[in-house]
Design a protein that fits this description.
- The chain has 14 helices and no strands.
- With about 300 residues, it is mostly helical.
- It has one domain: Ammonium transporter fold, CATH 1.10.3430.
Length: about 300
């Protein structure tokens, strides 16, 4: 009986990953889309990303200091929020509006709920929805990479101007009008594959979302390739549906979440008044995340489905 055993509480399986390491991995994964934004939109992309990230980081620092909480600005979460928000706005958005949106993303989208890990909705998408409601004209002014004003591909589909749609190659590479960091499907996919390789996200969730939108769009008579390459679908699939805080933690729950987002996205694009539906579909499904987790949680080992005596 000379051997001694160490008894500890769970978790018993430990890993070298940390919140900070995961967050900075996501930041690295966003770099290809950032580079693509610089190539296609130049100084405007740099201006908006710089303002958004700076205001997000400063806002988080101030909120944490005022509330006397531990500083979390070094974990990279505010940087991710700032980058994603800047990626979701038009390149012509005025700087002060970008600053307002970044403040709302952290202040109302994150810190008001208690900080990292406590927010219900995706902070970047909350801020984008607020900016669209407050400044609809500025948030729907699109420019082509050639510096000419033009409608987005989804806007053309909404208006029935299908003959003027960009070719698939331009949609894939990103030489189209749209938001700062959403136009290049290629760059976003490179970042997504990097996260999958680093095991930060699972392939199944973006695959279910993209595949479902493709299938439903084809059934409704829309060009499914345009539907998945245009707008914010790729950015949402790889960087927002996979958010560890606002999406289900269970595997089955994640698949159900992705499927629900696909249904709502296609519904808004087809029958809504707005040509894009990714932002609102994710926010709506965020509200159902606790319910999805509750009904898709695996059974505990040794537990019974029905505790009634037979």
């Amino acid at each position: 009986m000379s051997e001694r055993y160490e008894v500890s509480i769970s978790p018993h399986i430990r890993d070298d990953d940390s919140v900070s390491k995961i967050m900075w991995t996501v930041v690295i994964a966003l770099i290809p889309a950032f580079i693509a934004s610089l190539v296609f939109f130049g100084q405007d992309a740099l201006r908006l990303v710089a303002i958004s990230v700076t205001v997000c980081v400063v806002t988080e620092y101030v909120f944490r200091k005022v509330r006397r909480r531990d500083k979390t600005i070094g974990d990279g979460s505010a940087v991710i929020t700032g980058m994603l928000l800047a990626f979701c706005v038009p390149p012509t958005l005025p700087s002060w509006m970008m600053a307002v949106g970044a403040f709302l993303a952290i202040g109302l989208g994150k810190e008001i709920f208690g900080g990292l890990g406590m927010n219900i909705f995706n902070p970047a998408l909350i801020a984008r929805a607020m900016l669209l409601a407050a400044f609809p004209t500025a948030m729907t002014q699109w420019t082509h990479p050639d510096a000419i004003t033009s409608a987005t591909a989804l806007g053309m589909v909404k208006e029935g101007i299908v003959d003027a749609l960009p070719v698939y190659a331009d949609l894939f590479i990103g030489r189209v009008g749209g938001c700062v960091g959403e136009t290049s499907a290629l760059a976003i996919m490179l970042g997504g594959l990097f996260m999958i390789f680093r095991k930060v996200i699972r392939l199944e969730i973006p695959l279910v979302y993209i595949g479902s939108v493709f299938a439903f769009s084809a059934l409704l008579g829309r060009d499914p390739v345009v539907e998945i390459l245009a707008g914010g679908l790729m950015l949402g699939a790889f960087f927002m549906l996979t958010d560890m805080v606002t999406t289900p933690v269970t595997f089955r729950g994640g698949l159900l979440f992705a499927f629900g987002c696909a249904v709502i996205t296609v519904a808004i694009r087809n029958w809504g008044g707005y040509p894009e539906g990714v932002c609102y579909s994710i926010l709506i499904m965020n509200a159902f995340t606790p319910l999805i987790d509750r009904y898709t949680a695996p059974r505990r080992l040794g537990s019974m489905r029905n505790n009634k005596k037979k």
